[in-house]
Design a protein that fits this description.
The protein is mainly α and 129 residues long. It has two domains: 3-64, Helicase, Ruva Protein, domain 3; 68-111, Irregular (30s ribosomal protein s13, domain 2), CATH 4.10.910. Helix content is 45%, strand content 3%. The protein has six helices and two strands, in the order ββαααααα. It has helices at residues 15-18, 27-37, 50-63, 67-84, 87-93, 108-111, and strands at residues 3-4, 7-8. The protein has a two-stranded antiparallel ribbon with strand order 1-2. Helix 2 crosses helix 3 and helix 4 crosses helix 5. The longest helix has 18 residues, at 67-84. It is elongated and about 80 Å long.
Length: 129
């Protein structure tokens, strides 16, 4: 099992899929890395030679920000937005959707479990009989 950027690459998968287990590498970036390293896309991760693994490791370390370094960068960007008090920063602070989604009916995953509010659900303006 190859270890690249501090992550164990999954066994018995095509290498272009296996590279996607590294945080920060998706389909497009995986293809670019493999093309630059001269490794065929359809090769299984078990069948890589040591030279191929080393070239992949070197390219990823040299050119791309992945794993802990990338996570730290993203968290710093979010903290900066919150500190300067931007709209996006406030949405992060209150755990609301940041990118303009509707919150009246959806956004349950971001807002958490529903909180029951008194007075909701009844028809307003109607009187008891």
């Amino acid at each position: 099992m190859a270890r690249i950027a501090g992550v164990d690459i999954p066994r018995n998968k095509q290498i272009w899929v296996a590279l996607q287990s590294i945080y920060g590498i998706g389909t497009t970036r995986s293809h670019k890395i493999l093309t630059e390293a001269g490794v065929e896309f359809s090769v299984k991760s078990d069948d890589l030679t040591e030279e191929e693994v080393n070239s992949l490791r070197e390219i990823i370390d040299r050119e791309y920000m992945v794993e802990g370094e990338l996570k730290k960068e993203v968290n710093q960007n979010i903290k900066r937005l919150m500190e300067i008090g931007s709209y996006r920063g406030m949405r992060h602070r209150y755990n609301l959707p940041v990118r303009g989604q509707n919150t009246r009916t959806n956004a349950r995953t971001r807002r958490g479990k529903p909180k029951t509010v008194a007075g909701r659900g009844k028809r307003r303006g109607t009187t008891k009989k």
